[in-house]
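Researcher: Structure for this, please.
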Amino acid sequence: MRKLTEELPVITTPSRAMSGGPIVTANVNDSPSPATDDTPWLDRTDISSALKQASANTWTFHIRSCESAEMQRVLHASFDRGIRYLALGGVRLKTPDEAENLVTPFGLHGMERISLGALITSAEALGYNAEYDIVQRLQTGSERKYIAPLRTYTMDRLRLYRSNIKKAAASAYPSAVRLPTSVAAVHRLIDISNFIYPPLPDDKFKYTQPFSGPGLADVVRAAFFGDSSPYQVGLQNINSFTSSLPSAPHEREIPEAMLAMAATAILAVLFDQSVKVGGPGTGAKSEFGGATFDTAFKQYMNILVKLRQVAPAAHHALLHGICIHAIGKNTAVNDLSHFGQDSILGAVDWANIADSNDG
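Model: Predicted structure, token format:
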């Protein structure tokens, strides 16, 4: 069984594997592989020269030793495809409830599914989908000696990219908001994700303006619109950005998933600051993954989709404004999980959110 989500197209397409089209988030097979594989796989699917036995049941893949040029192309294309999925998300959600079923890079088996899906989709885009070809072998081949080593190799690259997003947040966010050194003050930002709202006097927050909190736009710019790789995914894909507001079709918005990812990275930075794991601006000292971040990301997406429905002009102004901030005015384009994370959705003051149908 495979769950399909649509991947955004990219500007530069040096190969078919980097073009638009569906991205697969494939299920992970936990069952043991047969001792032998007598299937007559095509020669280009072979990775035996690049395998090294790490333990009795584990094999690792080394791309420099891979003699199949086709397999190397699939691997490199999967890196690009997986990174775009993490940064840009998939198909635009239609309802807030759909966020609960998202495959995120934080949840159980999320990275495995995204990585294997990126491999399969890349192989399909490159045309390696004949009988006994790469696509089929990625789906039905040996788990231990084929699927798992390749999936892990791509997953390691995507994990590195995920950690780079957090590093960008750890650098940009504390300086943008002058992060307090008081643990209690940091906890107040973490609680029900108060940091995504503009602050008010007396330690209150403006719940009618979700994702307008200070520092969010700065983290988006640092993580996705930076001056060097790997912080340029937004710039590299700017021509794929669209508008959700029919009355302003040429005013590009950053993808909702990009803003949700930036907010999740800020949450991770705040967690680190709270427990003194490195402090602000020192990079990723704790794992940027797990159930807390999976839940938070899904709830951020839920809020953004609901904002699009309830206040479409305000939603557009938010995402378009962050896009303009991120690309610059001269651009040609016009475990602290107990801190109320389950109540993120309840904090938004939907009844008093103002909107204008005219944008």
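Researcher: Any notable elements?
Model: Residues 1-22, 30-35, 277-284, 329-339 have pLDDT under 50 and may be disordered. Strands lie at 2-7, 21-26, 51-53, 59-61, 199-200, 204-205.
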